[in-house]
Amino acid sequence: MDAGVVIPAAGKGRRMGGPVSKQFLDLCGVPVLIRTLQVFLDHPAVSQTVLAVSPQEVDYVRDLLNRFRVPAGKVLVTPGGRERQDSVREGLKVLDREWVLVHDAVRPFITREQITTLLQQAEAGGAAVLAVPVKDTIKEVNSDGLVDGTPDRSRLWAVQTPQAFRRSLLVQAHEEGERTGLAATDDAMLVEALGAKVRVVEGDYSNLKLTTPEDMALAEAIWKMRSQ
Ligand SMILES: Nc1ccn([C@@H]2O[C@H](COP(=O)(O)OP(=O)(O)OP(=O)(O)O)[C@@H](O)[C@H]2O)c(=O)n1
Ligand SMILES: C[C@](O)(CO)[C@H](O)COP(=O)(O)O
């Protein structure tokens, strides 16, 4: 299989806070973005890598790639957009492989094996996402802060990235989402809106999305645990 990956890395990290966008924060000596990127650069099935970054950070990212000896030409850097969905759409414009992975820059704990399994599942049905069963009870809460309902937890999964798709399906989903104004928090939501089936592949809880400050402490602990 010959795949490409779009890594949305144009966020501002508002929930993380601080002066540095979280994708550039140091994780045990290496920026989060570089750690995430390296897993895909080392994967035999991934032959094209696209980073969608904030327009103001394109030069900074290119310098970062040089400093961490990412071979010139191995990574395409393109300006992202206002929302994550827009950044992924911009990345798709410069990616031309038949199969596409979309992976958050701020999920540095993805593994080669998970990427391989996900691509195999996507190849079987057109779309696949990594996810884990939720551990907490989830409640629907109304604007008054009152519980509206408690969905059956056995049917609830916390979806992660990578998400893998046949490129033509994902492009169609993004085009339709843009046409209808669907604001999607993940790419699978756009594909579901087309009526396409999305396969869930069980990942693991360490595939953390670095979002709020305590996640950095968790990330250091996970990194150290894995390095033992
Ligand atoms: N306009 C945007 C917004 C987000 N992202 C990327 O999408 C991934 C997941 O988004 P999230 O964790 O929400 O990052 P931020 O938007 O930066 O966080 P926040 O919502 O706290 O500002 C991150 O790698 C982020 O850089 C992006 O490429 N373009
Ligand atoms: C795509 C995602 O990581 C799946 O869980 C998540 O929806 C991204 O949300 P964010 O608010 O853009 O971080």
From TrEMBL:
Transmembrane helix in keyword set: no
CDD domains: CDP-ME_synthetase
Keyword Nucleotidyltransferase: yes
UniProt site (Positions MEP for the nucleophilic attack): R153, K209
Enzyme class at the top of the EC tree: transferase
Pathways per UniProt: Isoprenoid biosynthesis; isopentenyl diphosphate biosynthesis via DXP pathway; isopentenyl diphosphate from 1-deoxy-D-xylulose 5-phosphate: step 2/6
InterPro entries: IspD, IspD/TarI, IspD/TarI_cytidylyltransf_bact, ISPD_synthase_CS, Nucleotide-diphossugar_trans
Annotated keywords: Isoprene biosynthesis, Nucleotidyltransferase, Transferase
Any GO MF annotation of the entry: 2-C-methyl-D-erythritol 4-phosphate cytidylyltransferase activity
Any one biological process term the GO annotation gives: isopentenyl diphosphate biosynthetic process, methylerythritol 4-phosphate pathway
UniProt EC number: 2.7.7.60
Protein family membership: Belongs to the IspD/TarI cytidylyltransferase family. IspD subfamily.
PANTHER family (UniProt xref): 2-C-METHYL-D-ERYTHRITOL 4-PHOSPHATE CYTIDYLYLTRANSFERASE, CHLOROPLASTIC
Free-text function comment from the UniProt entry: Catalyzes the formation of 4-diphosphocytidyl-2-C-methyl-D-erythritol from CTP and 2-C-methyl-D-erythritol 4-phosphate (MEP).
Protein name: 2-C-methyl-D-erythritol 4-phosphate cytidylyltransferase
Organism field: Melghirimyces thermohalophilus
Gene: ispD
